[in-house]
C-alpha cells in the first residue's frame, strides 16, 4: 500500500456552562452555538439553570457535535434563521433522554436511539424533556441526496427503529461516532465521514422504502459500504477486497448494488470522488495541496484526480478551490 499524506487536522471546539454564572448561561450557550453550530434561542426551566456541554468537530467532509445537558429547549425562529442563515441539514441522533421535535406543523416524540433529520433553513423547536445527550451530524443541503439518498422535501424525517436491523444500525452509528470522539486519529478522521454517511443513508432508505430484500442483504450492502469507507485511501482497494471482507461474492454484491442503479466498482469511485470533492472545498482543508488530497483519497496521481473531478463537476480542482475561496 502506498504511503499517504497526513489528513488535514480537524478543528475541535468545546463549551460548557458549568463555570458560567447561572444567570449568564443561556446567553453564553446561544452565542457559542451561533458561532459553532447554528443560531438558536435556548430556554430552561431548571432551578439550576442550563447545565450543558458541547464538543464540535469540523472535518473536511462533515461537521459533528456531541451535546449533553439537563432538560432544556432550543428554538430556531424565522427571525433567527434570517439573522444566522445556514444551508444545512442536521441529523440528531438521541443517545440519552426523551425529546419533542416540532417543525412546519409536524410533531415527533423521540426516545433514546431515535434519529430526526431536518432542514435548518426552516424554523423548528427541539425540546429535551430530561437529561440528554445527542450526536448531531451537519451536512450542506446540496449534499443531502449524495450523502444520504434523501430529498429535502421528505424532511423532517423521524427514524425510530423498533428493533432488529434498525436498532443494530443505530447502535453502529453510536459506536462509530463515540469511538472517534474518544480517540480521534488521522485515519479515523479520514474514514469517519464516509462511514457516518453510509450508516445514515442506510437508516434513512430503510425507513422510507422499507426492507429492500431480506435483512441479510441490507447488512451485506452496509458491510460493503463500511469497508469501502474505511479503505478509500487505499489506491489498491478493489471489489474483490470488499467481497472478501463482506463474506459474499462480487457477483452477489453487484446484484445488491444494482438495485440502486450502480455497481460495487462504481460505488468505490463515486465515494472517492465525492469525499475528495468535499475536502477540496472545505475551509478546514485549505492547508492541504491538491496533490495531498488526491493521494489521501486513493487517486493514482494528481492528473487522474483532476480528470475525474473535472468530469464530475465541470471544472478542474484548482478552479473549484479558487471559486470556493472567493
Describe this structure in words.
Helices cover 44% and strands 22% of the residues. It is an alpha+beta fold. The N terminus is likely disordered. β3 and β4 form a beta hairpin. The protein folds into two domains: 162 residues, Sandwich (Jelly Rolls); 116 residues, Orthogonal Bundle (Arc Repressor Mutant, subunit A), CATH 1.10.10. It has twelve helices and twelve strands.
CATH superfamily of the largest domain: Jelly Rolls
- Low-pLDDT sequence parts: 1-7
As laid out across the biggest beta sheet, the strand order is 1-3-4-11-6-9-12
CATH topology annotation of the largest domain: Jelly Rolls
Count of individual beta strands: 12
**Beta-strand percentage?**
15-25%
Broad structural category: alpha+beta
How would you describe the shape?
globular
CATH architecture annotation of the largest domain: Sandwich
What labels would you give this structure?
five-stranded antiparallel sheet, Jelly Rolls, 2 domains, alpha+beta, 326 residues
Set down the secondary structure blueprint:
Blueprint: E1 11-16, H1 25-36, E2 41-43, E3 52-59, E4 62-69, E5 72-76, H2 78-83, E6 88-96, E7 98-103, E8 106-111, E9 115-119, E10 124-128, E11 132-140, H3 144-148, E12 157-159, H4 164-182, H5 186-209, H6 215-230, H7 239-246, H8 250-258, H9 264-281, H10 290-296, H11 302-313, H12 317-324
Antiparallel strand pairs: 1-3, 2-5, 3-4, 4-11, 5-10, 6-9, 6-11, 7-8, 7-10, 9-12
Helix pairs in contact: 4-5, 5-6, 6-7, 6-9
